[in-house]
Write a structure and sequence with these properties.
Helix content: 55-70%
Strand order of the largest sheet: 1-2
Order of helices and strands: EEHHHHHHHH
Strand content: under 5%
Largest sheet: 2 strands, antiparallel
Distance between the termini: 59 Å
Radius of gyration: 20 Å
Length: 166
């Protein structure tokens, strides 16, 4: 997310669409997994939004609902990114869950501050969505290159068989 004239701007449209696509692809293949996540997410959000306005956004991390989601492990990262991409106003507490699920600090991004304000948290959520999108693009490119390499190797083996021993 970027800030223009003090207003928070949404993550790049392509990043949002990619998060949406991954979520719905998994939902089509594993609807039960998504349903379990959604029920736990709804409970987590209800607790977060019930906290007093004076509470730090981090208070959500000290709840049983947060811990229940955290225990699902990194397999839910795509779902969390989807939530951050589609409604950051309601789902910004998911940034703390994202960080709890990711072991590699480079994949977490760099929050601008200690995430004590709603605005800082929303900016960081946008950064997570963008970073996830960029990492997925790198992954897709590496897969493409690996496939090209394997195809080249197959062709080389075929030519060696055709030409025989040298």
């Amino acid at each position: 997310m970027t800030e223009i004239d003090g207003q928070i701007v949404s993550p790049m449209r392509a990043a949002i669409e990619a998060a949406d696509n991954v979520y719905h692809t998994v939902q089509g293949t594993f609807p039960e997994a998504v349903a379990v996540f959604e029920s736990k997410w709804t409970a987590f959000q209800a607790v977060c939004h019930a906290l007093p306005a004076s509470a730090s956004p981090r208070e959500c991390t000290r709840t049983d609902e947060f811990e229940t989601l955290r225990k699902q492990g990194p397999k839910i990262l795509a779902f969390v990114v989807f939530k951050l991409a589609t409604d950051v106003d309601q789902n910004s507490h998911g940034a703390f869950l994202f960080n709890a699920l990711v072991n590699d600090p480079q994949y977490r991004g760099v929050p601008g501050d200690d995430l004590t304000s709603t605005e800082a948290l929303q900016r960081y959520c946008g950064q997570i969505v963008e970073l996830s999108f960029q990492l997925n693009k790198v992954y897709e490119e590496r897969v493409k290159l690996w496939k090209e390499y394997c195809t080249l190797q197959e062709h080389m083996l075929l030519w060696r068989r055709i030409l025989g021993p040298t």
